[in-house]
# Entry
Amino acid sequence: MAPHTDSADSHAPETRVNGINFYTRKWVKPEDLNANGTLFGGSLLRWIDEEAAIYAIIQLGNHRVVTKFISEINFQASARQGDLIEMGLVATSFGRTSLAMRAEVRNMITRKVILSIERIVFVNIDEEGNAAPHGYSTITYDRDRMPTTQPAED
Ligand SMILES: CC(C)(COP(=O)(O)OP(=O)(O)OC[C@H]1O[C@@H](n2cnc3c(N)ncnc32)[C@H](O)[C@@H]1OP(=O)(O)O)[C@@H](O)C(=O)NCCC(=O)NCCS
# Structure
């Protein structure tokens, strides 16, 4: 039976594997496939970038965060239509204006690691688009830094 979901997203209670918290699950659908019938790398990177942006917003308490750097991306295994995948991130270092993270994506059906990225760096920016100090040095597991205004109100 198909998983019950209105979209490809499923926000599950998070799971922790190898020090990484897996926050979001995705259902691989026809529009996510390449010509080989397996998960298209570009779709996966888009999901990871979005996941990292949300993680950075929660950690740095600012809507204005941008992707600065993504290290080597190692696609280790793939996924097929109907597979469920889960995406995990962990902050590895807090800089003055930046946040570095490690990412891993796993296939929940085959249990294989689909992709790992050692270093994704996001930068906290101000209204002018300049790098701005975020003032944090440790991971929060709560929602205590969540922005309290909507982006358009900033
Ligand atoms: C993000 C941006 C404002 C930073 O400007 P900048 O002049 O490079 O700023 P800085 O040199 O002060 O660097 C900002 C931080 O990024 C880090 N950084 C810069 N280049 C980096 C690189 N190649 N890899 C990793 N981190 C890097 C710096 O170490 C610094 O971190 P810290 O303050 O924690 O030490 C600017 O590069 C930018 O707007 N880039 C485009 C971002 C974007 O639009 N991304 C979406 C994809 S198109």
